[in-house]
Amino acid sequence: FFDCCVCACMASHASAKTVEPVVEDKDAADECPAWIPYDQRPDWADVMAVPQDDGPHNVVRIDYTPEFSSTMDYFRGIMARGEKSMRALAITAEASRLNPGNYVAWWYRRQCLLALGCDFQEELEWMRPQLMACPKNYQMWFHRRELIIHDPNRDIVQEKALIDAALDDDSKNYHSWCHRRWLVQTYGAYDGELDWVADMLQIDVRNNSAWNYRYFLMDCHILKVLEGEERTQVLHREFQWAMQAIEAAPNNESPHNYLFGLSSLLLDAALILYLKNLIKAMVDLGTAQPNCVFARTTLFQCLDKLGSIAETTTGLDSATVQWLGSKVENYQHAVAVAKELQTMDRIRKKYWWYQQRRLEQELQESGSADVLVEPPECVSGATKSSVSA
Hints:
- The protein has helices at 2-15, 26-31, 66-81, 86-98, 103-116, 120-133, 138-150, 156-169, 174-187, 193-203, 208-225, 228-248, 253-262, 268-288, 293-309, 318-324, 327-344, 349-365, 381-388.
- By secondary structure, the chain is mainly α.
């Protein structure tokens, strides 16, 4: 199939005409000419092959196929000449077909495309079948990125459609999500993205990649362009939206992280009010779902954050100041939650003991508490002795 694509690519770049889709069947495969080694091709007779240098003591020889060895030897040969030609472009297609992760082949292909003034839209379409066959190949996604950067006729809608197709196959493909984020952020293509990612989360509410992308939209665009009441309304909507996702699946960590993450985008009174609402929601959730580790985890994070800002936040009304309390009070509440989590979250028992110890030491250093930190049973005797001492 890819042999046919290479043939089509060579014809396409030479004639600058649209290439018809290649049909993958036996008859079509029979029509493709048999592969000929490069040292038997008259039009390559002027190129000196450069064999792979494995050093004087090759311990384990890799058993490359004759096709791979011949292609790579002549690819290195044409690179040594610095040649940017149609045949150089053609051999990069073969090299990338034989090893789609060959970064140098993709890089040299771009150099040829730029030198020859090729149609980048044609190249983007040519590589699509390879990308869909290897959607977790970083080199191909990067190749597309570079082509889009250099293409004045870039089609953002078409590129989003390609990403959609890749995510339909694997909705958590890291490279697809990274490519979409780059595309949207670089070219300001934010329109419709919030609705799009909402649809992704409707399909799979546990898709952490989608939650991360939603946070990216809030951080890099939506909350940056809104002020005052509009900003407040969006935050309220996001709070309610994420809480509905939590109510549907309380032990899904992603929306808990999303809600606490939004607090990092707020300051002063707005931050205090947001944390107050989040704490109330987590207390209610913990009451309804007493075994929900993530409700307790988010509660701990909120109390820890409140303790760190309690004495520096200004511009609060008296009722909020009274609710906020002091650094000591918030840290003491957080310590109590950390102790609970050592029982609830056994896998991370040491981590929660560490958090308990950190806050109790903060309290000791401020002269607000006289606490002897006792490590949990899972900590080694040597560590326990050193802590007690």
